[in-house]
Structures are given as C-alpha cells and as structure tokens.
Amino acid sequence: MRLILLGPPGAGKGTQAASVIERFTIPHLSTGDMLRDHVKRGTVLGVEAKSFMDSGKLVPDGLIIAMMEDRLRQEDCGRGFLLDGFPRTLPQAEALDALLSRLGVSLDAVVLLDVTDGVVVERLCGRRVCKDCGAIYHVSFHPSRVSGICDLCGGELVQRDDDREDVIRKRLGVYHEQTSPLVAYYEKQDILRRVNAEGAPDAVCRNLEKQGGAA
Asked: Which of 86, 157, 87 is nearest to 128 (CA)?
C-alpha cells in the first residue's frame, strides 16, 4: 500500500496517519525525520542540508527528493509507505512522480482529508495546552473540569501562539495557494480519494481505511 495523505492544517493528518500505518503495517515517511536522520549521521546529503538550515533557508526540493529516494530504497518500504506532509507543491509532486517512476513503483491512492476552513479554525482556536505537563484540551470538544486549569496537574491552560485565528488563517492561505493545486493534479491521475474529515476521529479513520482498502 503506497499512500499520500493530503489535507489542511487541523484536518487530523497526524491522528489518521498513526492509524493507517498500524492498520496496513507500513512505514510513515516524514521529510522532517529524514532531514534530522541525515544531519545526525553526517551524510553528504545531511551536511548539505544543514548548511541551508543553519542559514535559515529552506532545504531545496532536489535535496529532499534525494533523501526520499534513499529512504524509499530501504527494505521496509518494499511493502508500501505513507507520505504525510510531502509533496506540498506541484513541483514537488512532479519530482516525486519522476522518482517513483525511476524506482518502478506507483502510488495506490492520494487521500484528501476534506475539511472546511471554518472547522479548521474552530478546532485549532479552541485548543488549550497545559503549561506544566503538556496535556491538551479543547474549549468545546474536551474542556477541563475547571476552566483554564489542567485536570491532571492543576497547571495553567494556555493557547499556543500558532493556534491564534490570525496565524491559522495565514497557514490556511499558504495551504490553499501552494498545496490545494495537488488535488486537481492527482484527480487527473485518477488516484485521488476524498474522505470527509469533519466527523469524529474514529469515523474518519473508518472512512479512510475503506478508501485505502479500495485502492
């Protein structure tokens, strides 16, 4: 099973990715994990990537693709993989297609976690985190027993800076500009599968697994 998971911030990609990799017993490929691994091991790719990271620049797509190729050639990817957070742009999608073609493999499905901006804003704006133990709550869906106080340790619950509405709207803007075009790109390849991601996580998970099984 070779899958890509698409969706805006707040769509629940992390939650659903964990379920999929357990259900299908496939590795979860994260470009962030790949970068950290290459930098830690001091590989040629890692040293080059670190030079960009240390100067505050984005790591070029070519380097990311090279790391992706290295990872896809590893034995555990022989039974499939789940890509989450990559590709983010059309050039990255085209480069990934070229890589997969060289490796002689193809995607089974690209699953879009479909959720409206309004639901994303409600989910993320309502999130509260304990300053002391890191426990996560939601003012509507999972409130603490005493407002603003953690049930577990009594610590103060705060809203993270990246959960403010203005920040979320900016992130959504970047998603719509850079990543949304991938929907049409993969629709043309007839491998896009839409999953309504506005329900409870368990219901979304069941729908996603059905799409994966159908692929």
From this structure: 157
